[in-house]
Amino acid sequence: MGDKYDRQLRLWGAEGQRRLANTHILLINSCATGSEALKNLVLPGVQRFTILDDQRVTQADATNNFFVTLDSIGSSRAEIVTKLLLEMNTDVTGVARHANVKQVLQEEPQYLDQFDLVLATDLDELVTTKLAELCLIKRLPLLIITSYGYIGSLRLQVAQHAIVDAKMDPPRHELRLFKPFSTLQKFADTFDLQSMSTIDHAHVPFVILLLQAMKKWKENYDGQLPTSFLEKDEFKKSLQEMTWGSWGHEVNFMEAAENAYMAYVPPQLPEEVASVLAVAASHTVSIEALEKTKDTKEFWLLAHAVADFVKQNEGLLPVTGVVPDMTASTEWYVALQELYMTKAKEDATKVHQILLNRMCDLKLPQDMISFDAVTAFCKNAPNIGMLETRSVAQEYKHVNLVGVDLEDEDKEQSPLIWYFMLRAVAAFASQFNRYPGSEDAAATQDGAWLVAKAKVLAAGSDVVDWITDDHALEMTRSCQVELHNIAAVMGGVAAQEAVKLITHQFEPLNNTYVFNGISGSSMIQKDWPQVAAYFKALLQSRLHSPPIYCGLAGDKGKAMYAGKALKAGEPIWTEAPFVAMQHEDNKEFVDCCDNCFVPLIDSKICWARVVTGSSSEVEGEAVPADEAAASEADFEAAIAFLQKEGGKSPEESYFSVFKLAESQVKCSCGVVYCSDNCKQIAYAQHHALLCPRSEERENAMGQFLNHTLVTNEIFQLAAKVVAKILLLFVATQDMAQARQPVDIFCKLPWWEVITSEEDLEDGETLEEYRDKFRSLLMQTYDYFISGLTENLAHLETQNELNGLTADALLVSCNEVLSVDFFSRVVGMFEMNNISMEIDHPLHALSEALSEASPEEKKDMPPVLARVKLALEKFTEEHNHQCDEEHDEYDEEECNAVDEDFVGVEGTALFSGICTMNHSCDPNCTVLYTKDGAAHVFAVQDIAEGEELCISYIDVDQEVDGREECLRLTNVSSFIAYWRLMSDQAGSTNSYVIAPVVRKNGKHRRLSNKWRRDRDGLIDYESFVLPRPKLP
Known about the structure:
Blueprint: H1 6-20, E1 24-28, H2 32-42, E2 48-52, H3 59-64, H4 77-86, E3 93-97, H5 101-107, E4 117-121, H6 125-137, E5 142-148, E6 151-157, E7 161-163, H7 182-189, H8 198-201, H9 206-220, H10 229-242, H11 251-258, H12 261-264, H13 271-283, H14 287-291, H15 297-312, H16 330-361, H17 371-380, E8 385-387, H18 392-397, H19 415-432, H20 443-457, H21 469-478, H22 484-503, E9 512-516, E10 521-525, H23 529-542, E11 548-552, E12 558-562, E13 571-575, E14 579-582, H24 603-614, H25 632-645, H26 660-663, E15 665-666, E16 672-673, H27 676-690, H28 700-710, H29 714-732, H30 735-743, H31 750-753, H32 766-797, H33 806-812, H34 819-832, E17 834-838, H35 841-850, H36 854-858, H37 862-885, H38 896-900, E18 904-909, E19 917-919, E20 924-928, E21 934-938, E22 947-951, H39 959-967, H40 972-985, E23 1003-1006, E24 1009-1012
Parallel strand pairs: 1-2, 1-4, 2-3, 4-5, 19-22
Antiparallel strand pairs: 5-6, 6-9, 7-8, 9-10, 11-12, 12-22, 13-21, 14-18, 15-16, 17-18, 20-21, 23-24
Helix pairs in contact: 2-22, 7-9, 9-11, 10-11, 13-15, 15-16, 16-17, 19-20, 20-21, 24-37, 25-37, 27-29, 28-32, 29-30, 29-34
């Protein structure tokens, strides 16, 4: 067998061949495509196969299927194909069953239990759905292969596929240079570089060079590793200083410089490996759970043992024993290799002991998994993984195009178009029991049906507009024809993926492969389980299942869609921010809770300002003496009255914030909260790691915070995110869960997000320009990590790290503590932040009193009348001052309450709202309540399946930037639409929810700032919409 399978053994080894030789495959329908796929599995030596097919050989089969002959026409196709396939490999056995697959699945669902893998071809939608459902229940891998004219597709469905060796390219090597084991460091110390010959000096392994250079560095820097960009650069230069002759003459030193990061970057678990170990920790809790994994039971037991090993060894995987190629003498390379192999055996022994203890707990045989198997698993530990695709039923219910990039797709020949056309063909076959185009007279009607069906399937994506009658014509003229060349291609692809599944090596394709033989193009429609799972959990738990779903909006990326028809003014969902902060300049005007962001208002000071501002003469007339001025007691009584009228308790009412200043609590660093509960929540979520511990901010974290005040306060928000991830990891020890809300949005580094070619000065390159921002971020990152490390050490002394040490936490969380991650978090806020605006409660009081009808005013209690009069006088006096300062003013624009009583303004990340795209014709708006929660409302009728959009101008963008945005946009239809809406509404009870363009030279206040428009530029006004009722 060794000679027979020599070449393939080089690909998947003896273990992979053993798995192939123990596999039983079921092929459903032995058409040309199915026969080609099975042929490519018979040749490498599967144990046996079964063909389930009720068709007889036809003339068409004889022309496109090499495994039938002309003299076999009329015979059972399954039997003929089986006979000819067995001639290709005598090691393989096979049987044929002439039966209808639909009938077998209905009457004998247990029939599938004997197989390890199912290949299915030439099935309609109903049979495919039933087969996929049974395979999912039985945890059988399923490959659905389609060849239709010049188009082919392959759909993979697996419940939970384990990857023993992903065969990464390039391979992953972790040499423990960051934290060398004792024998490795001792070996490195034996090298005396200065006394060597020139030849020996040029053949010292780079591992030794890095260990010696780092040892010298630590001696000079009190045992500290290089952390900043400048320090790392200095470390690399120290390697250059160690070389003899010109730089580049000694290749081993160049290799050391290229791999210098290994010496100062903590080793990190690859994301795929971390996911497997997290699942393994809960996967092997019982025999019953293990039995569900079929042939991967051994895999999950080993993964659980390695997961325990990692926990006990500061987040480090077992040493693999593999040493990469490098410039070195044979003697030293072999000696180095022996060191790593010895350490690998030690680690494997520890993993084996953990495994034996686990198997004892589960009452499994101690010899069930050999030590050699443990050693092999530890060797491949950096390359393990798992794959779980969406089920076919989920795909048929809703095609998940989140993550598919359509920007570069050919709008005439994109494989994605043909995916939807193949889906439409399968649906047609199920509904009409024939294939489209099979009846010449109905070909045109069949094509129209296919176009309509494909557009329905592609709803919510740009692909809808790409589907034309020409695509339908290609489907109807193909009419179930299999071209042998396309069948051969798809059979080869299917067999390749089958081998990956059988051997548990290499990474199988994720979801669907589509091949377009017309243009010679293909694509993999990847599944995005992390994204899909996150938004599913977000909508169901945190957002309480609103009538929306996440999908793809063409090249705009992810988007939110209406799950049902919505009416204008209808609330859609409410969402608390994942993380938020108040703007520093806003703190000068209003205090708020640093956790829930409710305004902290002192009612006495607030009312005193109103009384003072309304007590002077207005337009030369003194206030009548018979009108008693509203007192502080009147103000308190008015609030109590409005609370009672609203049917809410004082604590529930928005006006309750007038009392919060009296109960506020402070942290030692000066940060203010509305209650002890909010203080405790903030401490547990992020403040424990961000607290400077005194108002003087003299420690390292204080230096970071002071640095952000003179650079960019968005760095504080990024620090909040990292701190929140770390503390969530401390609580759950699940990094994937802790970082998931951020990974959904993290894309580009900060310097790439905020720079463009248009910003360059003469002679400056884009990279030079970006270096300025990169340098600033590196400096900020150094401040932050220094403060974070100091605070982690403090929490360790207070026993607040859930049994972890600060050093272990830094190692386990090294990915989210990297400068790369920090830069992408900052970039995330530049791309996805949403303004957070919480109104001052005096605005609500003023509106509540001013909204009274004439009849209500007559019956208004005297206390309310006095308060209302005081507010009116306050506004009148303010307008009088505006009139004196400016030639003309708009009463709406010069508002005393707005100017003197500023609300809370900040920036936040709302996971759901940030997924919405912007539009110049938005159908939604976002309003805020006193607790910082955001409420999404429809501002016009929205159809089911329609994308939900908000205003495309960022609220916290500078005024000039907003003007530039509008100048660069064709705003004519924008103006007309909003003015029409304003005219139709005809009410004064409105919210500013969208910008409208107008030309004037008046003053206009935006975001609590005054500015004068230049003549002919744009301005904003509110359009009118009946105010929706807030929760």
